[in-house]
Design goal:
- It is a single chain.
- By secondary structure, the protein is α+β, with helices and mostly antiparallel strands.
- Helices cover about 25% and strands about 30% of the residues.
- The protein is globular, with a radius of gyration of 20 Å.
- The structure holds fe (ii) ion.
Length: about 400
């Protein structure tokens, strides 16, 4: 059994009366050292369109913001223009990374009020930005580390449906008139569709604290497809639980380090963020893993190298499980999967293909996962062993094992 990519936006229904009804990932804001240069990295390596910009030329006096889009993914790259801007302090301590995982909601003020009532700490109170095109209301709450969740409600031309069609993102943003890579990317798409999940790394012993936070504050649930036993093998040395919004639209696994034979990858992350938790990876969904990985590799994306031995066992493991549950076996060409170094895993609902990039910046912190689901709603647990062997090779190269 295979399934096509699920539509990602929650329909406007009677649940509009629920203030924490999340419509979509509005955008993910990265604080970066140099937004202008980062646009080239995300455009050239990952095929994002550099669509809109807010900077000195558009009236943004304190920071430059670049909107990068692909499918229903919106990244905002933000760089402050002075040492006083919060982004520059953030970068000094933690390097480039995710600051804000923003959710589109029907009423940002109502969502914020409800979250605060549920015990959230405020990051910033509701602000309304308005011009002749419409209104955007944003309000933020603090989650783990220095990461925040903004609630964003959009009106007039700024409604999300318009933004998805290339309409204006927010006041002060203007269309980028010429950027040669945009044409190239239209002709050579990478096929990334939407944010499948976002993973946070938190400190030792803190996973359950943040699980409870997502339950209480954002009214998330432990994801039902996930067996909630902690994942911890002698290799994996991490524990993880997946939290999902009420409609399962937004999934946020939370990792904590665990003691293993070697240093946990989660601990290595924390060692480069002054032990401050943060977003470890964004999983970006594709309908065609082979095409996406081939195109990303052609563009020079650096992926984790999967040990050759992995492919000696994977088909037996994955296809046996699929047959046992009455599903078709993996339809992708096995040789191509191996040549492209892609990971495969299956569960009672189907299978998935996934691959992880190396860190996106010099610090071994944030990375991307490229994932394709064929029925499976899990996260590649069967790949942990192979993955950790691969990660350990990289940690060893960095002298951090
Ligand atoms: Fe993931």
């Amino acid at each position: 059994m295979t399934t096509a990519s699920t539509p990602r936006t929650s329909p406007a229904t009677s649940s509009q009366t629920d203030p924490l009804q999340l419509i979509d990932v509005d955008h993910v804001r990265f604080y970066v050292g140099n937004a202008k240069q980062a646009t080239y990295f995300y455009a050239s390596c990952f095929g994002f369109q550099f669509e809109q910009m807010a900077d000195l030329t558009t009236g943004s006096r304190d920071a430059a913001h670049a909107l990068m889009t692909q499918g229903n993914i919106r990244l905002v790259l933000t760089t402050g223009l002075s040492a006083e801007h919060p982004s520059m302090k953030h970068i000094a301590h933690y390097g480039d990374g995710v600051k804000d995982v923003a959710f589109t909601v029907f009423d940002a003020t109502a969502a914020y009020d409800r979250a605060i009532k549920n015990g959230a700490e405020s990051a910033y109170e509701p602000v309304e930005t308005k011009d002749e095109h419409g209104t955007v209301v944003s309000a933020g709450i603090k989650t783990y580390g220095e990461v925040i969740h903004s609630f964003v409600s959009r009106h007039g031309e700024y409604e999300l449906a318009n933004v998805k069609k290339g309409g204006r993102f927010m006041p002060l943003f203007e269309k980028v008139k010429s950027f040669a890579l945009n044409d190239h990317n239209r002709k050579h798409p990478c096929g990334l569709k939407f944010v499948d999940h976002l993973v946070g790394n938190v400190g030792l012993g803190k996973m359950n604290h943040w699980v409870a936070w997502y339950e209480n504050v954002l009214e998330f649930k432990l994801f039902k497809h996930f067996d909630d036993k902690d994942i911890s093998t002698e290799y994996s040395a991490l524990m993880s639980k997946v939290m999902a919004s009420g409609n399962n639209l937004i999934k946020m696994p939370i990792n904590e380090p665990a003691h293993g034979k070697r240093k946990s990858q989660v601990q290595e992350y924390l060692d480069y963020t002054e032990q401050v938790p943060g977003v470890q990876h964004l999983a970006l969904r594709t309908d065609d893993e082979l095409h996406s990985i081939a195109e990303l590799r052609r563009r020079g994306v650096d992926f984790l190298t999967i040990p050759e031995a992995y492919y000696g066992q994977v088909w037996e493991r994955v296809n046996t499980m699929l047959k046992a549950h009455g599903h078709d076996v993996v339809k992708e060409d096995h040789e191509k999967v191996k040549d492209l170094g892609i990971l495969v895993d299956s569960d009672d609902e189907g299978y998935l293909l996934q691959l992880f990039t190396k860190p996106l910046q010099d610090r071994p912190t944030l990375f991307f996962e490229i994932i394709c689901r064929r029925g499976s709603q899990s996260f590649g647990k069967g790949n942990f062993k192979a993955l950790f062997e691969s990660l350990e090779i990289e940690q060893e190269r960095r002298g951090n094992l």
